[in-house]
Automatic annotation (TrEMBL):
<dbReference type="Pfam" id="PF03514">
    <property type="entry name" value="GRAS"/>
</dbReference>
<protein>
    <submittedName>
        <fullName>Hypothetical_protein</fullName>
    </submittedName>
</protein>
<keyword id="KW-0804">Transcription</keyword>
<feature type="region of interest" description="Disordered">
    <location>
        <begin position="140"/>
        <end position="160"/>
    </location>
</feature>
<feature type="short sequence motif" description="VHIID">
    <location>
        <begin position="282"/>
        <end position="286"/>
    </location>
</feature>
<comment type="similarity">
    <text>Belongs to the GRAS family.</text>
</comment>
<feature type="region of interest" description="Leucine repeat II (LRII)">
    <location>
        <begin position="333"/>
        <end position="365"/>
    </location>
</feature>
<feature type="region of interest" description="SAW">
    <location>
        <begin position="478"/>
        <end position="553"/>
    </location>
</feature>
<dbReference type="InterPro" id="IPR005202">
    <property type="entry name" value="TF_GRAS"/>
</dbReference>
<keyword id="KW-0805">Transcription regulation</keyword>
Length: 560
């Protein structure tokens, strides 16, 4: 087999086929339901509704099945239900009329006959335009590399002037911290007074700090009121969620503004490509199965075009069940799309879904089997999913779900395990400490959006902050124990945890770091940070490291 393409070429091509793939997603008739489960898979109301079905299914025998890239109707999923609250979660465009015909051909290739009639009030057309080739910056801002004028600066300065004119200059961050201290100490009167003051000076359309304070106030109120209020607030956010079209447009704004997801997908895919060199069979195991499979079309295309011929590819998505009679429906739909995509590229492809309420019950044998003649190279992928697992088992002396899953990954003996983690300490058990960490983490995200979103995208920025960042922030602030979804750790703690599990860190190759850094410098805001530390590729904003990426192999002879 020929060598992998240079990192610069792989990076440049990483999102070339993402937009045609998205167009097929949004042309499906029930995309709104699918989008809901993508954004709210851990919603308390959904988890409650799921329990009776989980109990029914747990009494039935499991069904395992594989899906060829041709006959999708025979797909089946391995159902592994269990009690507990282990939960999973949850770019680019480039304009050019001359490419529309090519997009149309790509969409037809990726469609099954029964899907071609499905459209969604212009959503399909919008997505086809998005899918041209993945150059989101140039689509929104032309081909200039000049820094964008932040849309928030005008409204932020105006808001400050209004407060100063009234003699009401306040430090919202200090107010938020004081309110968190009052909530932690049980001083409800003081907390209520501080919340009223925060609400007067915050706004969902103000500057970054005012926007963050507006949504953090929701989280503090929910924590004061208890778990029932948290559930009601998350239900309300789901009921008020944007349409599929708005979410798609907001996704465009986000991917134009931010390099975070592009870097995550590119780093992982480049590591997988290198692990697949010289191998005729490849088995990709993806924990989470979120993002509708957006990570994979570019990888499948590069594998199909590999010098010497493509490998046979199997993919197993390990995700969480949905409530209802088809718990693996979202995973199966992702598999159908990817199978159609692989068929269009001429890549031999099989797909399998593993839907499990508790990932720690999924063993290596369940995922990769025990066939001694299977010479497929196994690669394991995690993009921000393992951080949703509980860090404690609830049973004395039992390993935590995180450690158990990492042990299963080790037992798969992967050629590479690529991991992306949220770097933060806002999962700390002491509330004021965790709140402070969450404050600075989310403030970096709100500030990044304010500095990079074009003014014409301001409404969609509100959609993104309200429907995605708000939900995450409220969950972190108000959730405790099993109610909490996001449980971030620093990348250094993940490093120690992975080593304890019997994994050895692979070095981050300098050419990969440089290829990513060049692309980010060329196409994104100068305040984005791309660094390397202790074998991790780090991403951040204005010096704060927000995400970290690494690659791992099995440690031999116990040398961790």
């Amino acid at each position: 087999m020929g060598p992998a393409a240079p990192p610069s070429e792989a990076a440049a091509a990483a999102d070339d086929v993402v937009l045609p793939y998205i167009s097929r997603i949004l042309m499906e008739e029930d995309i709104d339901d699918d989008m809901f489960f993508c954004l709210y898979p851990d919603h308390p109301a959904l988890l409650e509704a799921q329990q009776p079905f989980a109990q029914i299914l747990s009494s039935s025998s499991g069904i395992a099945g594989e899906v060829n890239s041709a006959p999708m109707e025979d797909s089946a999923a391995l159902m592994m239900q269990g009690s507990g609250n282990g939960r999973g979660r949850k770019g680019s465009k480039h304009g050019g009329d001359e490419l529309e015909a090519e997009v149309g051909r790509a969409s037809k290739l990726m469609a099954t006959p029964e899907e071609e009639e499905d459209d969604d009030d212009g959503v399909g057309e919008m997505l086809e335009k998005m899918m041209l080739n993945g150059d989101e910056d140039e689509a929104f801002h032309g081909e200039t590399n000049a820094p964008r004028v932040p849309a928030e600066k005008k409204c932020g300065k105006a808001a400050r002037r209004r407060r100063q004119a009234k003699g009401e200059v306040v430090d919202l961050r200090e107010l938020l911290m004081s309110c968190a201290q009052a909530v932690a100490s049980g001083n409800r009167r003081s907390a209520g007074e501080l919340l009223e003051q925060i609400k007067r000076h915050s706004s969902p359309t103000g500057d970054a700090t005012e926007r963050l304070a507006h949504y953090f106030a929701d989280g503090l109120e929910a924590r004061l009121a208890g778990a029932a209020s948290l559930e009601c607030r998350l239900v309300a956010s789901a009921e008020e969620r944007a349409s599929a079209m708005e979410l798609l447009e907001a996704y465009q704004v986000f991917m134009a503004a931010c390099c975070f997801k592009w870097v995550a997908f590119t780093f992982a895919n480049m590591g997988i490509l290198r692990a697949a060199e010289g191998r005729s069979r490849l088995h990709i195991v993806d924990y989470g199965g979120q993002y509708h499979g957006l990570q994979w079309p570019s990888l499948l295309q590069r594998l199909a075009e590999r010098e010497g011929g493509p490998p046979e590819v199997r993919m197993t998505l390990v995700g969480h069940p949905q409530p209802g009679f088809r718990p693996a429906r979202r995973l199966e739909r992702t598999g159908r799309r990817l199978s159609n995509c692989a068929r269009a590229f001429g890549l031999p492809f099989k797909f399998r879904a593993v839907a499990a309420a508790r990932w720690e019950t999924v063993t290596a044998e369940d995922v990769v089997g025990v066939d001694p003649d299977d010479e497929a190279a196994v690669v394991v992928n995690d993009v921000l999913s393992l951080g949703t697992l509980m860090d404690e088992s609830g049973v004395f002396d039992d390993p935590s779900p995180r450690d158990t899953v990492l042990g299963s990954i080790r037992d798969m003996r992967p050629a590479v395990f690529v991991q992306a983690v949220v770097n933060g300490a806002h999962g700390a058990p002491f509330f004021p400490t965790g709140f402070r960490e969450a404050l600075f983490f989310f403030l970096a995200l709100f500030d990044m959006l304010g500095a990079t979103t074009p003014e014409e995208g301001s409404h969609l920025r509100v959609v993104l902050e309200r429907d995605v960042l708000r939900r995450a922030a409220v969950g972190v602030i108000a959730g405790e124990g099993a109610e909490r979804v996001e449980r971030p750790e620093t990348y250094r703690r993940w490093q120690a945890r992975n080593r304890r599990a019997g994994l050895r860190q692979a070095a981050v190759e300098g050419d990969v770091v440089e290829a990513v850094r060049r692309r980010v410098r060329r196409r994104h805001h100068e305040e984005f940070v791309i660094e390397e530390d202790a074998g991790w590729l780090l991403q951040g904003w204005k010096g704060r490291i927000l995400y970290a990426h690494s690659a791992w192999v099995v440690a031999e002879d116990g040398a961790h």
